[in-house]
Amino acid sequence: MSQDPSLMDQAGELLTSAYSRKHFLAAAAVAAVTAGVVPKVALASAISGEPMKKMPESIAEILNIAITAEAAAVTVLYNVHRSVNAGTFKTSGISLDAATLVKVVRAILRQEQDHYAFLAGAGARPSQTKFNAPAAVFKDARSALAFLETADEIFTAAYMTATREFAQGGHHKLAQYTYQIGGTEAEHRALARFGQGKLPNNRSFERNIFPRVSGAVTVLNQLGVLKQVVPYPGAAAVDRILSTSGDHDKTAGIIQRSP
Length: 259
Known about the structure:
Elements: H1 7-14, H2 18-34, H3 43-48, H4 59-86, H5 98-121, E1 130-131, H6 141-168, H7 172-195, H8 214-222, E2 230-231, H9 235-243
Antiparallel strand pairs: 1-2
């Protein structure tokens, strides 16, 4: 695994794009209309969005990007779990006790693998099956939680963009599914922040970062996550590690595993 210590710093810079600033200004204008600061005649057009139109990315492109990201998440979390089981994972210096941290990691691993399985069932295929993360992520809980916060900010934003594209294209059921997955990714980000001692619910609105879902690929690639180093373990390996460690429950306490 990469030992690049600047990954987290790079993430902050990469996620602050010109598009994000432009979108924020547009959203602020809508808020001003709602508050009565500007003429209300502009409100309907401001919040209605664009009419249904041809999608800028195909369904297959979006789903393939999504399943690749899920494979990366499973790969990282699976290997974190292996380090925990081996007793080589430092759990001090965080706002969760070790037992709770293990439960959280196991549950997120289960959820990401369920996302992968659902997307695969819809015909999605990952563009690669090997991934990368800083070596510290597999040794130290603070590093792992910081990485998770960054990754899930990217994933949440990417699923938001996918939801928007599907809605514009009239694919309402797909929009529902990506909204459901994106909501879970936002929960992961909040948990990662809480574990670091940060305010978990620090936003009223999740960040709208990417004009296209493929923007997430660019950021993940720049962060080194898409370097082909460690293989995706597969569904059977995930079931096995969840079934043979912790509470020996392969569901990891997840009560809804499909949309």
